[in-house]
Amino acid sequence: MDHNKYMTTGEFARRMGVTKNTLFHYDNIGLFLPEIVDTNDYRYYSIYQMEVFDTIIILKEMGMPLNEIKEFMDHRSPESLMELFEKEDKKITEQIKRLKYQQQFIRGRKEKMKGIWSIDFEHVFRKQFPNRYYIYEEIRDETDAGILKKTNEFITEFERRNYQMDYEIGYIQNENDILSGVYDNYTNAVILPFKKPKGMDYQVLEAGEYLTVYHKGHWNTIGAAYERLLEYARCRQIKIDHIFLETYAVNNLMAESIEDYVTEIGVRIIS
Q: HSE of 191 in the Cβ direction (CA atoms, 13 Å)?
């Protein structure tokens, strides 16, 4: 036997960066067999098998199950390899897209959380916002459970159609309700995606300066925050728009109890 051409199981395993048990397992399932098995049951691998084994490792690192790798290796051809690469290329593209959306989600939440713990809840802020897309959904339910259930169904449908995670959930309050002192009449939910949505009707919140206040706690006690905002506008003779938007600065992703939620309320300044 030419020892420059053949290696023992241990030598081949070290050369390929795997364990001997891996080679024994691949032999047992018929995926990768030694080129020679002598009368003493010693196994020897050829240097020419290294390239084949590299192919198996690459396919395994791509997430391909061993039984599928075996099927491919038993019937490999230029055509089947091209078909496999096309399939895996599409899979990797989807994985990259999903990772990018996850990264956008993390970055968006990090930005949202900056300074949230030091907010003065008695203060009224003036904040600049760009144009924002929003998708509107009617919700006709007077219970907390019903509002949350309908909102979650709305979110699920949006994610199914748009395949993006970077968005905010909000509620638009009716101007007549707010001016009449009714602050918790939730009849809708809105999704504010950071990218133009697909396959769903959307509207645009105009860019501009917004009066903004923050409320900590359950939404049924949010009235005091609205009163601060309206009083601020009245005292300074600021004309405001008719759309009052509520979004969560802190929600169940960061807080265990609704009492620890932080809601951002904003309305655009007209003059």
A: 27
DSSP-derived secondary structure for 131-164: -EEEEEEE----SHHHHHHHHHHHHHHHHHHH--
Residue whose entry in the numeric block shows the structure tokens 């809708």: 188
Decide if 168 contacts 190 (C-beta within 8 A). no
pLDDT at position 132 = 92
Question: In this predicted model, what pLDDT tens digit does every residue of 227-239 receive, in sequence order?
Answer: 999 999 999 999 9
Q: What is the pTM of this model?
A: 0.62
Question: With 90 as the cut, is the pLDDT of residue 21 above it?
Answer: yes
Query: What integer pLDDT is reported at residue 164 of this predicted model?
Result: 60
The answer to whether residues 211 and 238 touch, using CB atoms and an 8 Å cutoff, is: yes
Number of continuous H segments (helices) and E segments (strands) in the chain: 8, 11
Q: Which residues, in sequence order, are CB contacts of 149 under 8 Å at separation 6+?
A: 141
Q: H-helix or E-strand containing 215?
A: strand 208-216
Question: What count of other Cβ atoms lies within 10 Å of the Cβ of residue 153?
Answer: 13
Closest by CA to 216, choosing from 186, 188, 255, is 255
Q: What is the mean pLDDT of the chain?
A: 88
Do the Cβ atoms of 35 and 42 come closer than 8 Å? no
Mean pLDDT computed over 170-187? 90
Q: How far apart are CA 120 and CA 126, in angstroms?
A: 13
